[in-house]
Amino acid sequence: MIQLGTTIDKRYEIEAVLGRGGMGTVYLVRHVALDRRYALKELTLPGPGAEAQFLAEARILAGLQHPALPRVSDHFVVRGRSYLVMDHVPGEDLQALLDARGAPFTAAEVLPWLHQLLDALAYVHGQGVVHRDIKPANLKVGPDGKLALVDFGIAKAAGPAGAPGRTAFGAHGAFTPHMAAPEQVMGQATGPRTDLYAVGAT
Question: Which residues are bridge partners to 178 per DSSP?
């Protein structure tokens, strides 16, 4: 883990740890020159396959423009470590909110989030991308109540017409129990229906 106060690439000062996942750690950083906060994701999983998927995640997000999705602004390598810079999405994820609440949300509370998520997925799927890891921990709710879909670490981008999509490194077998669709669990072809199953499970 990077020590707080460290400056990466002479631009991004580490201020806090936002989260950790199977492929990397996400930090809250301040751009020294612009005095603006971003989320900086550091790849911690070694290997060329992981590096390729990390770059694929950056390219997928860089090509998506939607209010419910974080925008990527930079990708770089320093001293053999790969980094991804994206919008910092404030707020708490639904899993944390659920744990703190200790009880399920009501239908009235869930429906606005559901509508926002389905709108984001309609856009994502229209761009030929499948998220493949929708779950409460990957859905953040901001102070204004708006929802954001984060962590495209095992997303799949569509291939050329008639060709299968590019599968994320390590995505075979990389899924969240009780959230993943049967075809994902069995290692079969995934698509928009895979995300919709996870939305229902969520």
Answer: none
